[in-house]
Amino acid sequence: MSVCLGWFFTVVCWRHHINFSPTKRKEAGKAAVTKLSADVSSSCTMDQRCIQLLLFVTSLLWGSTNQVHLTVSPNSAQFFEDQSFNVTCEDVDSSAEWTVRRNTTIGTMEQCEYGLDESNRFTCKFNHIARLDRGVYWCESRDGSTSNSVYINVTGGAVILQSPVLPVMEGHDVSLHCQTKRPPSKLPADFYKDGSLIRTEPTGHMTIHHVTKSDEGLYKCHISSHGESPPSWIYVTDWSST
After folding, report:
1. Rg value, the chain, Cα
2. What is the pLDDT of residue 52?
3. Residue among 80, 132, 129, 130 nearest 103 (CA)
4. Of 21, 4, 141, 122, which is closest to residue 71 (Cα–Cα)?
5. How far apart are CA 106 and CA 126, in angstroms?
6. Fewer Cβ within 10 Å of end Cβ, the chain: N or C?
7. Quick one: 129 exposed, middle or buried, by C-beta within 10 A (0-12, 13-18, 19+)?
8. Using CA atoms, how far apart are residues 242 and 238, in angstroms rounded to an integer?
9. Rounded distance, CA 231 to CA 99, Å?
10. Is 1.10.3720.10 the CATH classification of the domain at 66-156?
């Protein structure tokens, strides 16, 4: 746990107190994720939820250095094993060729073969995913330019929390869905933020209206007789940071 706490405070310090340029932030993020992956590989005592949170928060360091935007479809930070999702690199000027890379909890960095979809975007498909596929995903061009990065969690459990994988703009609404792997999926669910119960929703769906920075935090949900979802961080950004 000391490894976890040390990493957490290091990442928070970098995130909030050091004014990195985009290039420096990218370099710091790469170094942090690589170092964290190595620490995870050598420390079997590190709590998996701690690892997931740290990989996500570390990914926030990894700023974009080009006019490219990464999106995930379906728009969720969590998936069940054997599900599928797409990662798309949307280039503003379409002048560069992009591919999707990832850094997972086992420390492997991979790239996927990409192809242009009907909207001329670079899309990578991940099918029949497993828990080893959880990690930080980003787009990268041949010259080393990078997009924003996201943390995607894959669980073998019975419950997931469907929440936005990308930062949410302040003032917008956020929808959270507590979902079971097998039907029925619209069951009563308890929603938690930073470990405290927020409310219980009869159909497993909760909407946070007009989010502010105070809504930022670590969310999870619980469905009786099914279990608890992994935690996901909801990050709120204001207009001045876009």
Report:
1. 18
2. 54
3. 132
4. 122
5. 17
6. C
7. middle
8. 7
9. 28
10. no
- Structural domain spans, the chain: 66-156, 158-241
> End-to-end distance of the chain based on CA atoms, in angstroms?
35
- d(Cα 79, Cα 181) in Å, to the nearest integer? 9
Cα 230 from Cα 47, distance rounded (Å): 12
Q: What is the CATH number of domain 158-241?
A: 2.60.40.10
Q: What φ, ψ does residue 199 adopt, rounded to 5°?
A: -170, 170
- The C-alpha torsion from 137 through 141 and 145 to 151, rounded to 10°, is 0
Tell me the C-alpha distance between 138 and 98, whole Å: 10
Q: Do domains 66-156 and 158-241 have the same CATH topology?
A: yes
pLDDT in tens, the chain (242 residues): 444 544 444 444 444 433 444 444 445 455 555 555 444 444 444 455 555 555 555 555 545 555 678 899 999 999 999 999 999 887 766 666 777 888 876 665 666 655 556 565 788 888 999 998 888 888 888 777 788 888 899 999 999 999 999 999 999 999 999 999 988 778 999 999 999 999 999 999 999 999 999 999 999 999 999 999 999 999 898 865 55
Rounded Cα–Cα distance for residues 121 and 71 (Å): 11
Nearest by Cα to 87 from 107, 62, 113, 67: 113
